[in-house]
Amino acid sequence: MQIQMTAEQLTDFLRREFPQVGEEFDISEPCEAGLTVRLKVDHKHLRPGGTVSGPSMFALADVAVYLLILSRIGPQGLAVTTNISMDFMRKPAAGVDLLAEARLLKLGRVLAVGDVLIRSEGDDRPVARASMTYSLPPKG
């Protein structure tokens, strides 16, 4: 499917519609293969022991797939997560941002399915992976 929104448009949408988290993410330019979203790790993302919390990684995965879907269907604020399965594989590196590489597996009329690998910046080993399903708003 043709790309409908640029990284700049996705960033503007996220900051306007979700101001509580819009500044926490940097978005790469979407391409046919997917897109990458960076979580700018801050002290509020850490859990005891100095590692990035599971909820922060969940948010990164959710935002990455959401934005990838919007890059294909346009600014549809009512696309919602209906299912997620997430595996946490290793402790993220301390003091670096996390990168989520998202790709679409299916973009249907009613549902979209995506996959995300999360890595610490500078390390190729995944720290988490997620499979997500979204319900898409009706057209028209």
Automatic annotation (TrEMBL):
Pfam families xrefs: 4HBT
Taxonomy, superkingdom: Bacteria
GO terms for MF: acyl-CoA hydrolase activity
SUPFAM superfamilies noted in UniProt: Thioesterase/thiol ester dehydrase-isomerase (SSF54637)
Domain Thioesterase residues, every copy: 49-125
Gene3D superfamilies associated with the record: Hotdog Thioesterase (3.10.129.10)
Name of the protein in question: Thioesterase
